Amino acid sequence: MSPLDVTRSRMDGLGSEAEICINCGSRSVGLCAPLDAAALGDMARATERIRLAPREPLFRQGEPATHVYTLTDGTARLTRVLADGRQAAIGFRFPGDILGFTPGAEHAFGAETLTEATVCRLDRKRLDALFRRYPVLERRFLELCARELAATQDHVLALGRFTAEERCAAFLISLVEAQEKRGHAGPVFRLHATRADIGEFLGLTLETVSRTFSAFRKRGLIRLHGQSGIELTDRDTLAALAAGEGEA
Amino acid sequence: MSPLDVTRSRMDGLGSEAEICINCGSRSVGLCAPLDAAALGDMARATERIRLAPREPLFRQGEPATHVYTLTDGTARLTRVLADGRQAAIGFRFPGDILGFTPGAEHAFGAETLTEATVCRLDRKRLDALFRRYPVLERRFLELCARELAATQDHVLALGRFTAEERCAAFLISLVEAQEKRGHAGPVFRLHATRADIGEFLGLTLETVSRTFSAFRKRGLIRLHGQSGIELTDRDTLAALAAGEGEA
DNA sequence: CGAAGGTTTGAGACTAATCAAATAAAGTGG
DNA sequence: CCACTTTATTTGATTAGTCTCAAACCTTCG
What we know:
Two copies of one chain form a homodimer. Chain A is of the alpha+beta class. Helix content of chain A is 38%, strand content 21%. The radius of gyration of chain A is 18 Å and the shape is elongated. Chains A, B: Keywords: DNA-binding, Transcription, Transcription regulation.
């Protein structure tokens, strides 16, 4: 398990399968697993599908949290901003991930697409009604939140303690692991994030990300395919770097 | 609201009062507010009080999460460690805060006291039984978890984007705000954390923390009283520094 | 093909880490 | 209560790592 896991917060281990809309109520998805057929019907009736263009916001920080989303296709990033305008990416999300759930009234962070994307959204009021009817569902969201908290804490460790090289290596490893969990096992991974996006997530400048990737390439650890394609050619060494074994 | 808030995750705004044991079931505490008298009795009967020495662990990362704790006296810090031994402090906790709740089977981080402390602990099995009986309680823990997540995300921002000076200023502001919320409004705040503890939380070395505090002292922003006493003498300037207005 | 946006690479500046030593505070035993 | 020990803090000098500013080079797309 990589210490810098961009995807730990999805429903892994809860029986999920990528590409299936959780909101739409498929039984094979973790969130819905404990629900009976009637409950699934309730959920499915309340959802709607939305297509989004690249770099289009799903919701912004501070907006009323009117819906919960499931990303069914494409990738998205989550960002948090401060009053003075500085911002950071706090995660990337992939098909199967749930976005925008919060027990509060407003979104604590924003979400925007990186690619063309499809989401399935469920009205918050209906979700609350489902909570009342099926309390076990609330437990699922609590588990999801705790998982996200653990991932964010690891991100704190990474930003506070890792060098640029370690952060980049851990990031690449976590991306490939995320890809594998989703069954997309091709050698080339396409995250449609710019170097600036990645830098915002890793607490680095885009130049440092670029330099570090170039160094990896020259050492034969990765191969770049166009702007957004990345292939890990020496995963073991990258994993060792990510674990702080650069010298040892 | 400071961006680097060590205490956002406590039950502020949910009607809590410091120094009252949540596990013990006082009605004036947020967690228990939605419960009726019978439920409070259920909770109170299931708790036990424990005294701890300074630097004594409450629980360690990876241990089975057998209990949930309320800190009733003293201060504690939370730490997360990586496989390679590197670790970071992920927060400080004060009287009234809840510690060690997780929906998973094991603690995702460790907690240890900084001072002599008293905690009140509730057996996890009994808590689960209470959840079944009073589902509204589970919603409280979800809110708590979401609050903690937001605080941790802000910490990510701070570590990724703030200079040493900004981190130290934000940290001091958040400590004083925490103190005020608890009603301990004296001018001198005592966190019993060493410079090394603070550095572990802020992603800095102990020398950098010391140098930054010294610089604040020379500029008349703070006054130090012994090793652990800190007094903010120019809070506005510190708040401006914390908000990234060092130059502007 | 040209334009726009993204990436790579370089040079220099600056922040914070490291290594090291001196000072101050807290704890201990006489 | 004092001297001694231990632990924590402060300060200094140097180094390493990352940022900033700048320019050239790719990619992608119209």
